[in-house]
Structures are given as C-alpha cells and as structure tokens.
C-alpha cells in the first residue's frame, strides 16, 4: 500500500520537475538579459532538481539508494545557488550592467 | 569563434556530454574520470592558460579554409574507419574475444574484487598503468620546467575576507567533504567506480578551489610546491617499488601474488598500494601545474586568476 502511494505521489513531483526544467531552458534562451537568464536557470537548478530528486526518492523506497539521493539533494541545494551567485558575481565583475529596458533576445 | 573563453566553455560542455555518453554505454569508471577531468580541471587549466595568452584569438595568419579542409578530411577518414567495425556489443567482436574473455572469467577467482575494471587496470595491465603515471609525472615536470623559468614571485598580499564572502563560507563547508570524497574514491576503487586517477583529480580540484577563493599565497603556505614535487615523484616511486619488491620476492615485475604469503591477499595489497601511488602523483601533478600557471598571472594576490 505504501509503495503504491509513494508511486502515485512521485508522478506529480516528477512531472512538475520536468516542466520546470523545460521552462528554465526556454527562459534561458528567450530572456533578454544575462541576469534574467540566470534567474530562469536558478529555478531549474534548485526547485526543479529538488522535485525530481524527491520524486526519485519516493520511487526508490526505503534503502541505501534513497539515502544517497538525499545526500545528492543536499549537495545540490548547497552548491547550485552558490554557483549562480558566483556566475552573477563574475558577470558584474566583467562589466555587465543590469538594464531592464534591453530588448534584444538571443 | 574568436572568443577563446567561449571555446573553453564549449570544451567543458563537450567533456560533460561525453561523460554522460560513457554512462549511457555502461563505462562508469571512464565517465567518472571524464567528468572530473574534462568538465572540471581541464577547462580550469585552459582558463589559466588564457589568462596568460589573452582572451581573443589572434587573427594574423589565420587560414580558416585550410583548417576546415584538414578537419573534414581527417573526420571523413575516421568515419570511413568506423564503417568496418562490428556492431556495437556484438558477441564476436574482436574486443570481446582473446584476452578480455580470460580476464572476465578468471578475475573473480584470481583477484576477487568486485570492480573488474580496476582488476584489469591495476593488476593484469599494471605495466600500462605505470606508463600512464609516468606520463602524468613527465607532463607536470615539463610544465614546471617551461613555466618556472619565467615565474614572478611577487610579495604576499594578505587576502581580504570582504571579497567572495558567500563563496568562502560555502567552500569552507565543502572543501573538507571534497577531500574526504577524494579519499573515499581512492580506496573504494575496487568495489565501485573509482581509483587513483579520479581520486587525484578530485583532490586537486578541492585544493584549486581553495586557491581560487582564498588566494594563491595562502595555498602555497599550506601546500608547498617543494613538497608537491617530492610527492609527485614519490607516487611514481611507490608504484615502481611495488614492482621491484615483487621481482625481489621471486615473481615477475608487478606480479603481486608474490608480495604476501597468500597470493589473493598479495594482489589486493598490490592493487591498493599502486592505486595510492597513482592518486598521489596525479593530485600533486595537477596542483603543481595549476601553481605554475597561476603564478605567472597573479598581480593581485586576493583575486582569482580570471
């Protein structure tokens, strides 16, 4: 019973995670500015990967695989925002300015 | 594409894609090494090289048509060569006959470790792996010989804590885990994907991360270049001396079954010791190469070479 419930619960998690990854990719291509694109990619790397990993943990059941996935999730939650931060810092250091009126797309 | 920075980033993406491709064909050890080197250390070293030579390609003497022709001819010859290869995974391909069958069938009994890739790499073909380690060592010595002649040893500037505060806090949390993971990969090479090469690269990546955030001079105080030079040589020496000890015990060069009284235990010990030698040399060589490149470009000690 628990296994069936876990499977049913993991489907919406995985579906929303996949949708967020795709929307993050679309945003990366279509947003006009580098900072807007980082915003879109930031959603992908924390929320989307978190949901996908939670869905996979539910599918894996109790066991060593779920624990390893939990560790991966924690690692991603710590390092992905740091990577976005480093990217934004590098963009500022390189001279990119925040320009809300820029119209150019990719 | 004139912007070499973008070229290096594309090379890193290519490394990551080939790592996932290797996972898709079930070659996990190779994927591990490719991800660590091709998507980690290699773009980093290329970027430090770019800091030396400049970001944009020199346009004098550029012959795009000739290079395109050369690349397409070579690519066409390579594709022509693959047309004759047997189908992927077919049972009568030459790669699955001859020696491979003998290794797969006798490795559990003779060596008894779960990871057959390590048993082939570190035991059956230990001589080739010795050659690989010597190549890495020679590369590090070559880089040192070329770059240290023109090194500029600037005075030490205290690294300020105001720069990169978030990065420093996170890396202080993560660098011990990275080094621990490198040690885990080193000593679990027999039971899962891993081994000396991957562990050395991951260890070096942790130290390079520290150097980039906390300043090169701080890192040079913690891990001295002289110590690294000695360590790089010691790794190769350790590997070779295992072979010599087996010679002196009555077997062939690098025949581990003569190391201890029990041949199976002797093989385990031999594999662990040579993997340790490989890991030490790879880590020391990578860090030395990074030091050599970064030392040339440092003008302001507390900002990363970029």
UniProtKB/TrEMBL annotation, chain A:
Keyword Transmembrane: yes
A GO MF term: sodium:proton antiporter activity
Record NCBIfam families: CPA3_mnhG_phaG
Domain of life where this protein originates: Bacteria
Organism (species): Porticoccus litoralis
Record protein name field: Monovalent cation/H(+) antiporter subunit G
UniProt xrefs under Pfam families: PhaG_MnhG_YufB
Keyword Membrane applies: yes
Parts forming coiled coils: none
